């Protein structure tokens, strides 16, 4: 089975899922990691909101993915496009999905541990005087991060 990454049109993800499954006439597994946020209104009521962490992107898994299927599927309602190169990086996609599933609660929402596990990895500054510099977080305080940048703490 192969994973593909599809970008769906805004608010048409469910339409895409239904049409894609009908088009292939086969079992398709969809995965879209999400988290649940408690939003407190002005009057103090708590409302739970579900957000997909990848936005309009969704993982699709089936037996029938190939270049011919991919080109004929591009006109399915709700689909913007399939990401190129997702067939080359199947191991990376599998690892990401396994990591997400390990950090889900019983409702299928991501736990906070999903975000904290990243503290062990390397990060990159996107802007500012250290733009494109890679650093590693050594430890954190309530208000500060201690990092290692170019072998300097």
What does this 3D model show about the protein?
The chain has 153 residues and is an alpha+beta fold. The chain is 24% helix and 32% strand. The protein has helices spanning 13-24, 67-73, 90-102, 113-116; strands at residues 2-8, 29-31, 34-40, 46-52, 57-62, 79-82, 122-124, 134-140, 145-149. Strands 2-5-1-6 form a four-stranded antiparallel β-sheet, sandwiched between helices. A hairpin with a 4-residue loop joins β8 (134-140) and β9 (145-149). It is globular and about 55 Å long. The N and C termini lie far apart (45 Å). The model has no long low-confidence stretch (mean pLDDT 80).
Helix-strand layout with pairing:
Elements: E1 2-8, H1 13-24, E2 29-31, E3 34-40, E4 46-52, E5 57-62, H2 67-73, E6 79-82, H3 90-102, H4 113-116, E7 122-124, E8 134-140, E9 145-149
Question: Top keywords for this entry?
Answer:
153 residues, 4-stranded antiparallel beta sheet, 3-stranded antiparallel beta sheet
């Amino acid at each position: 089975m192969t994973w593909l990454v599809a970008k769906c049109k805004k608010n048409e993800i469910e339409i895409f899922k239904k049409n894609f499954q009908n088009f292939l006439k086969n079992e398709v597994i969809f995965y879209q990691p999400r988290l649940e946020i408690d939003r407190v209104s002005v009057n103090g009521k708590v409302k739970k909101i579900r957000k997909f962490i990848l936005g309009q992107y969704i993982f699709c898994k089936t037996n029938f993915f190939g270049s011919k299927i991919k080109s004929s599927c591009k006109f399915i309602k709700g689909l913007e496009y399939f990401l190129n190169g997702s067939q080359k990086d199947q191991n990376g996609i599998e690892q990401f999905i396994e990591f997400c599933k390990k950090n889900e609660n019983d409702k299928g929402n991501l736990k906070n541990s999903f975000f904290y596990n990243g503290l062990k990895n390397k990060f990159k500054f996107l802007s500012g005087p250290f733009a494109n510099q890679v650093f590693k977080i050594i430890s954190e305080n309530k208000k500060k991060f201690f990092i290692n940048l170019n072998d300097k703490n």
